């Protein structure tokens, strides 16, 4: 993918609670303003209405927090052996206990990279007790309830880019 526009602004990504814990999440991220990309927001709002109509009939107010661009670098290999593990994001829910993460209801992830550009880096969701791999095709939008456990397995080779945003709404009751 053409990563030039974002590559410079990337910083260590934090957890939903705002802390950076390398044992759970190792990736870099930057945030962009959704309002700055009106065409994208319109597209996402159309997708949101279809997803809430068809799959997850949640009460949603709209998107908040902006868009998170994520970069997962593959393992560093020296003399044929991995000298540093690749980036990953271990099992987590996107709903936090403070700030705007409290009202997250749907997670949207867009696969920005061509799957042939990296190995590993599989986005999986677990709602049944088994890890379920989600589609990887470049440009695919994946949506799931923000409370659902999900992870990104370590990228072993290449670089995986993704984008995440969240639809918010009143608390479940
Ligand atoms: O990179 C991904 O596919 C998932 C990102 C994610 O789970 C998150 O930002 O909370
Ligand atoms: Fe997540």
UniProtKB/TrEMBL annotation:
Cofactors, names only: L-ascorbate
One MF annotation (Gene Ontology) recorded for this entry = dioxygenase activity
UniProt name for this protein: Fe2OG dioxygenase domain-containing protein
Q: Which domain of life is it from?
A: Bacteria
Q: Which UniProt keywords apply?
A: Dioxygenase, Iron, Metal-binding, Oxidoreductase, Vitamin C
Which species does the entry assign this protein to? Kordiimonas sediminis
Q: Residue limits of the Fe2OG dioxygenase domain? A: 63-169
**Is the keyword NAD assigned to this protein?**
no
Q: Name one Pfam family in it.
A: 2OG-FeII_Oxy_3
Which residues are in coiled coils? none
The record ties this protein, via SMART domains, to:
P4Hc
């Amino acid at each position: 993918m053409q990563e030039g526009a974002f590559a410079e602004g990337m910083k260590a990504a934090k957890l939903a609670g705002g802390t950076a814990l390398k044992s759970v999440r190792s990736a870099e991220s930057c945030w962009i303003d959704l309002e700055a990309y009106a065409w994208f927001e319109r597209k996402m709002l159309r997708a949101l209405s279809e997803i809430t109509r068809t799959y997850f009939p949640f009460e949603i107010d709209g998107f908040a927090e902006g868009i998170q661009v994520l970069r997962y670098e593959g393992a560093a290999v020296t003399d044929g052996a991995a000298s540093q593990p690749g980036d990953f994001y271990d099992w987590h829910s996107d709903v936090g206990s403070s700030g705007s993460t409290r009202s997250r209801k749907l997670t949207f992830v867009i696969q920005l990279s061509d799957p042939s550009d990296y190995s590993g880096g599989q986005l999986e969701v677990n709602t049944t007790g088994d890890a379920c791999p989600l589609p990887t095709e470049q440009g695919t939008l994946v949506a799931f309830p923000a409370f659902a456990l999900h992870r990104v397995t370590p990228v072993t080779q290449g670089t995986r880019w993704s984008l995440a945003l969240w639809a918010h709404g009143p608390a479940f009751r």
